Amino acid sequence: MTGSIQLQNAVVHGEITHRLRISELQIHTGERIGLLGDTGAGKTTLLAVLGHIVDLSEGTVTRSEGFMTSLALQSPEQAFLTDMVITEIGGPGFPENEQVTRDRLAKYGIATNELLYRDPFSLSGGEARRVALAATQHSAETLLLWDEPTAGLDAPGCHSIAQVLLHHPGGFVVASHDTALLRKICTRWIGLSKGEIIWDGTPAAIAVDSRKMAMVGHFSTFV
Fold first, then answer.
1. CA distances to 56, 84, 97, 148, 158 from 91, in Å
2. Minimal CA–CA distance to 112: which of 92, 89, 94, 144?
């Protein structure tokens, strides 16, 4: 199923100024989008609005019928809900078939021997992060909304996450300071500064433009 989400005249107020102010933005199922911007630029707030956990102060959010999103904010491994990996992946009270769970975790580069029935809080940092992300991948048609998914992961862990995203049919919106990762996995980049979209285009066009990259706090360019 395909669908879309649209923001119009969207504003989220902060204590002093707006946290987000977007005149118009439309995202479709299957898109591969990277969010770039300095700390405090509004990336997390935008993901939270798209994920339906932060309400707009002004404006509208329109979701087409059946449009699904799944949100993982920074450090999702700090918010496990169950005491076993298998139920964390399948949802509280709904453990999946063991082999199904093993197959899903294998895509994240996790060897599951003796891991399925462990408390997820007992896992190593890298394992816990990948289990937490795997738990958000409910359906192939879900648009994944992930905030800094590779922060703190080693190279193999980052590679596994990149491969999961590249092969996820529902598409994704990923906020990251890792420009190389976003160049590899995305077909659309959105730049944010002070809660506003300052550019929206293809990585090929934007990554080589040092002025645009500097506007979102990135100073590395790619040929």
1. 28, 10, 12, 23, 25
2. 89
What pLDDT, in 10s, does the model give residues 130-161? 999 999 988 889 999 999 999 989 999 999 99
Q: How are beta strands 188-193 and 196-201 bridged, if at all?
A: antiparallel
Q: Is 198 exposed, middle or buried (0-12, 13-18, 19+ CB in 10 A)?
A: middle
Is the pLDDT at 18 greater than 80? The verdict is no
DSSP secondary structure string for all residues of 172-202: EEEE-S-HHHHHHH-SEEEEEETTEEEEEE-
Kind and range of the H or E run holding 159: helix 155-166
Q: Exposed, middle or buried: residue 53 (CB in 10 Å: 0-12, 13-18, 19+)?
A: exposed
Is the Cβ–Cβ distance between 84 and 119 less than 8 Å?
Answer: yes
CA proximity to 148, closest of 21, 39, 7: 39
Q: Can you say whether the dihedral through the CA atoms of 15, 17, 18, 19 is positive or negative?
A: negative
209 — phi, psi (to 5°)?
-100, 100
Position 22 confidence tier, pLDDT thresholds 50, 70, 90: very high
- Which residues, including other chains, have CB under 8 Å from residue 87's CB and lie 6 or more apart? 93, 94, 95
Mean pLDDT of 70-96: 81
